[in-house]
Design brief:
Helices cover 62% and strands 15% of the residues. By secondary structure, the protein is of the alpha/beta class. The radius of gyration is 29 Å and the shape is elongated.
Length: 396
Amino acid sequence: MINFIIKKFIKDYENINDQKVREAYGITASLTGLIANFILSTGKILTGILFNSISVTADGVNNLSDGASSLITLIGFKISGKPADKDHPFGHARMEYLTGLILGIAVILAGIELFKSSFAKIMNPSETIFSIEMIIVLALSVFVKLWLSLFYKKLGDKISSATLKASSTDSRNDVISTLVVILSLLISQVSGYEVDGYAGALVALFILYSGYDILKDILNPLLGEMPEEGFVEAIEKKLLSYEGILNIHDLVVHNYGPNKYFATVHAEVDAKENIMHSHDLIDNIERDFAKEMNINLVIHLDPVITDDEEINELRSMTGKKVKSIDERLSIHDFRVVKGETHTNLIFDVLVPVGYEIKSSELVRLIEKEIKQEDESYFAVVTVDKNYVSTYINDIK
């Protein structure tokens, strides 16, 4: 069924890197959720009012908020698919994150209101009218919501959409909350105890947790999260596969929306190489990344002296000294300036974000290690943050 919908309503559905195709996935998912949740909410709210059940009404209002969320998601995908303009030169893809944020807030507000209504019924209980029709409506809702959760997840995984994955989580939680409502109705019928208000409160708590879960997943990309390790490794591996690229460092990856990546990196090349040849190599690499990985890559060229035995030995010694302090550290941009009485070893040391040792203390430790090798060596160190999760330290 899910594959049928994808193939029927999404043209060129396999070309997920195309913004128009991505937009079609989002619109298809949103419209499906909007229709399903509107039908479910109408049925449950009418049933809850008819049989005086706050938990069933609460479950229906929850579906109504899901329908509103689908509408917000639909609008978000339409806006995120707009091309770049003079005010938004990198496009509008981040709107998808903002719609997810609105979705999470809306779910939390709905949960708060439902908890208030449920608490009121706990304080002032009234009899719930049990009926088979009510159980049938809720049972059908469980199957529909379970299917919607799988539907959202498949489409969300397909296009790496945090918003659709959040909708999948929300639908999964709806299945649990509806089962709780069914259980409460059966308990009330068998035992004679009125637990409808308690079930409504429990549903409200599920809704609140769902909203929190959505906000947690959405806030990470909004704040700027660490890129996935496998994605970074793929970038590094591809860069180092080009003949002439000796090493890379200072790789920074960020995005302007799902699958809209920008990256900068420093690439080391042999200083003896003709500058025009190196420039041509860099141009080709940048074009390859745009075409093959959909990454807007900017490369800074770093010439490295490779045929000076003394400099190579000093570079190797310095790298080992730095690693003796912490295996996670590495060096780059190594240069040597000789004087009559001393030799300056100039380099950057790459540290993880949030590194425990203060920069001033780290520099002091490095200077101490270098001095142990030779008193005439002076370390001129720049501390540089590593914004990705992998480390490439050795010249190929």
